[in-house]
Design a protein that fits this description.
The chain is mainly alpha-helical. Helix content is 71%, strand content 0%. It is extended.
């Protein structure tokens, strides 16, 4: 059995650790919520992001560690340019952004056209413009058409010219979000909120949170055509 002094020492130790964690949580909660609002908007935070930043705040020791590790890695490593952005095993490689081909610029323009239409779709969903129901459905359809048309002009591998991690996030999150936009718009035409539509709305929020988290924290680092 542990002696009383040993139990007291452990109790004091865990109390100190818990107090430090609690202080960090109190500080991290407004910080992560502010970062989400700054990257997206206050309305987006209300509509899409109250939960995700708060969960990040609860995991603040992890993010503090990763931030420190990233800072150390940037100081101690250099990237060697590679010819392709995505290797055969699916791992991303650094791409030399010293020159942009015509196809790279076309992908860049189409990507931002899709982004603009996607943001407009979300804006319309919030119902802030007081459109009639039929007008809203029509405008949502236009956004879906614009997103789908833009994606047809996007070359997945060339997105790495913009950011090395963009191809994977675009494929796994943004394209899924566009697909869900189409399903939601079609469901709106029927004016029936089916269980399947409810599921699509939940998935739309989950995928959107992941996409906005990446886009909001990395868009300032995106490269532009030279």
């Amino acid at each position: 059995m542990e002696s009383t002094p040993e139990r007291n020492i452990k109790g004091v130790f865990f109390s100190i650790v818990f107090t430090i964690y609690l202080i960090g949580l109190i500080l991290a909660t407004p910080y992560f919520n502010y970062q989400f609002i700054k990257s997206n908007s206050f309305i987006s935070w209300l509509f899409l992001g109250e939960i995700a930043p708060t969960i990040k705040a609860a995991l603040w020791p992890y993010y503090l560690y990763m931030s420190a590790s990233d800072g150390l890695e940037k100081k101690t490593t250099t990237l060697e340019p590679a010819d392709s952005s995505v290797s055969t095993n699916g791992q991303l490689e650094y791409v030399n952004n010293s020159s942009w081909a015509k196809e790279d610029k076309e992908t860049y323009d189409a990507f931002y056209e899709a982004i603009a239409a996607h943001k407009q779709f979300i804006h319309l969903l919030k119902g802030e413009d007081n459109f009639t129901e039929s007008a809203l459905i029509y405008k949502l359809g236009i956004c879906v058409d614009e997103m789908q048309a833009a994606t047809l002009r996007i070359n997945l591998s060339r997105l790495a010219k913009i950011h090395s991690e963009l191809p994977i996030h675009y494929r796994d999150e943004f394209l899924k979000s566009i697909s869900l936009c189409s399903k939601i718009q079609k469901a709106a035409k029927t004016r029936v909120l089916s269980p399947e539509t409810k599921k699509d709305m939940v998935n739309f929020k989950i995928v959107g949170d992941k996409w906005f988290s990446f886009f909001g924290s990395h868009s300032q680092q995106f490269n532009r055509p030279i």
